[in-house]
Design goal:
The complex is a heterodimer. Chain A is mainly α. Chain A has helices at about 1-15, 40-55, 60-70, 70-80. In chain A, about 55% of the residues lie in helices and about 0% in strands. In chain A, helix 1 crosses helix 4. Chain B contains seven helices and eight strands; from the N terminus they run E-E-E-H-H-E-H-H-H-E-H-E-E-E-H. In chain B, strands 1, 2, 3, 4, 5, 6, 7 and 8 form an eight-stranded mixed sheet that branches. Classes of the chains: A mainly alpha, B alpha+beta. The interface between A and B is small, with 12 and 10 residues.
C-alpha cells in the first residue's frame, strides 16, 4: 500500500503539474477534489488517463470514478483490486 | 476624451518590458522556466498558472504586468472591460503536442490538459478568469502583426457604450519563441499617455526591444 501510494502521488504530481506539492504533502485519506488538493474536472480526466496509461485500468462509469478518485487510498485500493 | 494606451507590457523571448522599462531578462532559460521566474516576480500566487500551456502563460503574464497597479476595479465594472488579442501561430505549439500524443495508435493517450489548450482564445478566457473580466472578447489570427486591423477593431468596441476599457494586443508563441505586446486601452485626457493609433501601437511593438 505504502509503496504504491507513494508511486501514485509522484505520478499525480507530475501528470497534474502540481507546482510546489511533494508526495509528503498529500495525505492518503484526504479528498483529492473540492478541498484537499483542489483538483478540477480536467484533472479528473488526467487521472483517468493516468490509470489507463500506467496501470492498464479503465474506469467504466462516472459513478465508479467518483468513488475511485476520492483519495489516494481509494485509488490504491482500486488498483490493487484490479491486479 | 481620446482612447489612449495607458499601460503596456512587451515580452520578446526572454525580455520583459513594462511601460518601456526593462523589468526582467534571462536569456539562458527555456520559456517555461523563464515564465516561472516571471510568475514569482509578479507575485501571482495563482497555481492554475502551472497547468497552462506556454501561450496562455505568456498572455497571462503580459496582462498581469500591464494591469499591475492600474486598479481597474475602482473605475470599471467587469462587463465594461473587453479583451481583444491576435497572433499568427494560433495554438500551434499545443496543437503539435496533442498531435504527438495521438499519432501512435498503439500508444494512444491524449492528454485532456493539453487538448484544452488547442485553441488560442483559451488564453483570453484564462485572463478573464484570473481578473474577473466579463466584457466582449475576441481573438484574431493574422499572417503577421497587424496594427491597422487591431486598432480598428478595438476602436469599434469603444463605440459601444458598454466598453470602457480594453486589454488588447499580440500574443504569439511557438517552439520556445515568445512574442507579446499587451496594452490597456482607456479613454483619457492625460496627454502624457500615447493616443491609441496604429502608428503608436506599431511603434511599441517594433521599438520595445533589447538595445
Amino acid at each position: 500500500m505504502s509503496q504504491l501510494a507513494n508511486e501514485l502521488k509522484t505520478e499525480i504530481i507530475k501528470a497534474l503539474n502540481l507546482e510546489g506539492v511533494s508526495p509528503e504533502d498529500i495525505e492518503n485519506d484526504a479528498p483529492l477534489f473540492g478541498e484537499g488538493l483542489g483538483l478540477d474536472s480536467i484533472d479528473a480526466l488526467e487521472l483517468i488517463v493516468l490509470l489507463d496509461k500506467n496501470y492498464g485500468i479503465k474506469i467504466d462509469s462516472a459513478a465508479d470514478g467518483k468513488a475511485v478518485f476520492h483519495s489516494i487510498s481509494s485509488m490504491v485500493a482500486y488498483i490493487e483490486s484490479k491486479k | 476624451m481620446t482612447t489612449r494606451i495607458t499601460s503596456y507590457c512587451r515580452i520578446t523571448n526572454r525580455f520583459i518590458y513594462v511601460n518601456n522599462a526593462l523589468l526582467h531578462s534571462n536569456e539562458d532559460l527555456a520559456f517555461a522556466d523563464f515564465a516561472k521566474q516571471a510568475y514569482k516576480l509578479a507575485t501571482l500566487n495563482y497555481l492554475k498558472f502551472f497547468k497552462m500551456d506556454n501561450l496562455s502563460k505568456l498572455g497571462l503574464l503580459a496582462a498581469e504586468f500591464t494591469l499591475a497597479g492600474k486598479n481597474w476595479q475602482e473605475r470599471y465594472t467587469p462587463d465594461e472591460v473587453a479583451l481583444c488579442f491576435s497572433n499568427a501561430s494560433s495554438s500551434i505549439d499545443s496543437d503539435r503536442k496533442h498531435q504527438e500524443s495521438i499519432g501512435n495508435r498503439s500508444n494512444y493517450f491524449p492528454s485532456p490538459s493539453v487538448f484544452v489548450y488547442t485553441l488560442p482564445n483559451i488564453l483570453a478566457g484564462e485572463i478573464c478568469i484570473r481578473n474577473g473580466f466579463k466584457g466582449e472578447n475576441s481573438f484574431f489570427i493574422f499572417e503577421q502583426f497587424d496594427a491597422e486591423n487591431m486598432v480598428n477593431i478595438v476602436q469599434q468596441l469603444f463605440i459601444n457604450e458598454q466598453c470602457k476599457a480594453c486589454v488588447m494586443g499580440w500574443i504569439n508563441y511557438d517552439s520556445e519563441q515568445a512574442d507579446a505586446l499587451c496594452c490597456l486601452i482607456e479613454k483619457s485626457d492625460n496627454e502624457k499617455e500615447l493616443p491609441f493609433t496604429a502608428e503608436n501601437y506599431s511603434y511599441l511593438y517594433f521599438n520595445t526591444k533589447p538595445q
